[in-house]
């Protein structure tokens, strides 16, 4: 229990209370909020020090840093909430360099009037995700904006991690002949959010795939340190992310539609909603591009991990000065899988 | 020039254009925005790699990490804007551990309809502050929320830095007998913002003191590695920050009102606005608590730095199990300088 609780023993009213402007003032109310929610749930020595920064020892090496703002709407959705998502999203961005994520920071922007009970649920879920991932939230910040100047809660998380010796993964390293893999079905997260927004009901609830992928990545790089690219296909989905990688590496890609795993219920919902699942966001999926010689070893280790059971090879990298992503369709034809042009799914993460 | 510009040569309309939902979609419009603003102004190799994370080498040692959300209103104010502030705020939070700040990340939450010309001004100012500080913005993220769900722009920055060997600064290390110093006048930032909000005009414009303090800190720790506490008195001002430190260290403090530097125009504005300058935010000031034996050396080095010309000793740390901050007033009386209770100045940073 921190010094703040000793001095301010009043409980925060997390049942009936709401966020008010004093919770962002730097004074007593903010100290209470921090103690009754953040220090309580995140529960680690670095946070408990109550300094404006967290200090920890690092070994010499290659460090990565990544940041992600989370503005998803609704805040609670089938399979997760903004709290868990804010942990998974940044753990994954760090892990996509092959790094082992070490620590997270969290910046909250709260809207005046937001129920403290909802904030507590979110912080609790964030703490759970952080503990499960073994990546503690060691420092943070809270701001409050007036009612109508925000939308409940926005959470910006930043992560740092260390890349194992010999691993060098980057979006510009895909080479013709490389193989493209994914760890599972596409579009689950985006469809879960859209169904929840539209109040659609299906026979089975479609849940977000929100998950931390760093333990999967650790096993992949341990069997194949020469993996070229890893990226999580979030906003814009598989199609947009592959286009980014193709452009960065100045290569083309050829996919086989029949090999891209999509759940039947996600397919059906996409048809109903007028969405293309290849452009729909994922939050527990990764694209891996590796030399053909490593593909089997990578696929095997993916399939033996709980988050890679449905892993599959979906295509190859080819030479193409126009960096087109092309797909052999289920009917044997071909199509260019282009960048997403406009906004397909706003505030999906 | 990055791959994105090669492929999407259309210019972003930063004269007439506005932020729209597509700028957060993960697609083409977002890539254009990132390239035409962030990559252009922040201009460094790590950002230009276009990965979802930045990688850099670190030496073994003690690292610090700090994060700060910036929701200041108005976005532009006398002496600065949210962009410069977002750099200074986090550079300072890192530096207050005695660390040398190395890298920054930046997460933007933009409101639909926000003028791109204003965003460009902000990014340009952020880039300038980052270059002047020598702390590059190496990775970032952009989200867009619907009109009425945000307030122009919020910026969350996170910084990492390395603490020099032998330096150990923390809020719980103040000891009775220690000396309390500040590097200059109190309340300038908060009064600049409030005057600007209230459209107050004074004979001289009161400007924010927004500045990066890490070079000042580096000189201070080089002459006195045994400094006990450093903290920047932002939200809640000098009074609240001293109360935090007193509580963390379980000590009391005694200040002399006549020694606390306050500009006459800030004093006058505070009287007009009904504010107590001791509770008003600063963005280029620090509190230093060090052993009495080091005080002269620290003071001398502060006074010889452009950001410490008005440095002064304002009081001492004393034994006090109640952790009270007390002040000998200008009239020879005494008063307890308590925590700020409510919200004095909303959205001041």
TrEMBL record, chains A, B:
Q: Which organism is it from?
A: Solemya velesiana gill symbiont
Which segments constitute the PurM-like C-terminal domain? 175-327
- The PurM-like N-terminal domain extends over 52-163
Q: What is this protein identified as?
A: Hydrogenase expression/formation protein HypE
Gene3D superfamilies associated with the record: PurM-like C-terminal domain (3.90.650.10), PurM-like, N-terminal domain (3.30.1330.10)
Question: What is the organism lineage in this UniProt record?
Answer: Bacteria, Pseudomonadati, Pseudomonadota, Gammaproteobacteria, sulfur-oxidizing symbionts
GO BP terms in the entry: protein maturation
Stated family? Belongs to the HypE family.
